Amino acid sequence: MKNLKTELPLSAVALCFGTCLFLSGGSAHATSDTELPPAGNNSLRNTCLYISRDGDQRTMRYSLDDQKQSDQLWTWDNAKLPDPRTRVRTIKNMPASADNISHRRYFRSYENYPYINLSDEILKGEEKVEESTYTSTYIERYPFTIGETLETSTMVDRKRGPGSNPEISSTKLIAKETYLGNETLVLPGNFTTPACKFESNQEIQSRSGATLVVSKSNSWYAPEIGLVKSTFDVRTFDGQTRQGKLEYLRGGR
Questions:
Q1: What digits encode the pLDDT tens for the residues 25-54?
Q2: 95: which residues sit within 8 A by CB, 6+ positions away?
């Protein structure tokens, strides 16, 4: 097994929201550190996975080992898409990075499956430098019962490089989402919110079934906002493993 090495904060963090293709995972098992609600009394779960609307914006902060790396502007839009059910989420660094990298995800939202991912793009300026498409459509399935795990799998077809001569690869993504419980978070700016906590375990396999990358992350979702925090391991080019974190600053509905 080999770990994918990266220091691409924008693409890594963006994909960790759903598909941690760029991250290597830790080995410790995450657990909830707050008292769990009684069975059948968990109204928070019904509202924490907020489905973003057309025109929504938010600012998120990306850190490594608690050191700020960048702030990111997340925007949702479907005004230019022929299918009104499809949205595009764009993530850009603020201020723009030297290489002007941004990430786009095209997805659909339904009541029981907030994130049905169609494709991902990484752009350098206006030039598309990487594209990933999912067959069948990649559905992020979040359990409703604490302790429950839901699994989904899809084939990921990736094109990387110039449009006339891209590098093409195909892998299998296996994703497991576990509902760990509910917690109260204190975010930057002393913003306090209740949140649902999920653990995501993802495995990338070759077509032959060999494991290429294993990743794990914890994510917290809050009512009327959605994702407010995510933690994950980042494997740097020099072989070090650092603690990555994404936190909500402002914005939302």
A1: 222 223 334 444 444 557 888 888 877 777
A2: none
Q: Convert the pLDDT of each residue in 233-250 to its tens digit.
A: 887 777 788 999 999 998
**Is 95 exposed, middle or buried, given 0-12, 13-18 or 19+ CB atoms closer than 10 A?**
exposed
Q: Is the Cβ–Cβ distance between 138 and 155 less than 8 Å?
A: no
Output the domain CATH number for residue 43. 2.40.360.20
Query: Cα–Cα distance between 81 and 54 in angstroms, integer?
Result: 11
CA distances from residue 91 to 29, 95, 102, 104 in whole angstroms, order as listed:
29, 12, 6, 7
Closest by CA position to 225, among listed 103, 82, 58: 58
Q: Is residue 57 part of a domain?
A: yes
**The pairing of beta strand 241-252 with beta strand 101-108:** unpaired
Asked if residue 106 belongs to a domain, the reply is: yes
pTM: 0.80
Q: Which two tokens stand for residue 78?
A: 């479907």
Contacts of 74 (CB under 8 A, 6+ apart): 57, 58, 59, 60, 89, 90, 91, 251
Using DSSP's 3-state secondary structure scheme, residue 77 falls into: strand
| Structural domain range at position 16 | 9-252
Q: Is residue 54 part of a domain?
A: yes
Tokens of 148: 């429950």
Number of independent structural domains in the chain:
1
Residue 109 lies in a domain: yes
Q: Is 125 exposed, middle or buried (0-12, 13-18, 19+ CB in 10 A)?
A: exposed
Q: How many CB atoms lie within 10 A of CB 144?
A: 13
